[in-house]
Amino acid sequence: MPKGNPNPSPATRFSADNPGRAKQKGARDRPSAAFLTDFADDYDAHGKAVIETVREKDPIAYMRLAAALLPTKVEISETPLDDLSDEQLDAYMEEAHGRIMERVAKGDPEAIEQARKLGLLPTP
Fold first, then answer.
1. What is the pLDDT of residues 111-121, one digit of tens each?
2. What phi and psi, each to the nearest 5 degrees, are found at residue 75?
3. pLDDT tens figures, 2-19
4. DSSP for 83-117, written as a single string
5. How many CA atoms lie within 13 A of 6 on its CB side?
6. What's the rounded Cα separation, in Å, for the pair 2 and 64?
């Protein structure tokens, strides 16, 4: 069994004095960027026909590649509602509830279900 602390302090574990274990800034992004650049170059050279061939001959590989190229996380920083005051939001909500209740009065089953989910109507 090796001697010493297997979990040295972060100060020494990730320091510049310990280049074997320190994480290089952007190290994970470089291979990804290089792969995507090479992949795009290959696509430019060989075109859509290669993708169609893979899709036909190996649909599992095709779907894996498609899934791998999709973003894993989508962040929405702003919505149109962010700039509205609480009073404006309340007014829009009242307007929306009013429209739903108009549809309820006409017997629209989707509106009735929506109104129940929103607590505008009692649940049966």
1. 999 999 988 88
2. -115, 130
3. 565 555 565 555 555 555
4. GS-HHHHHHHHHHHHHHHHHHHHTT-HHHHHHHHH
5. 2
6. 41
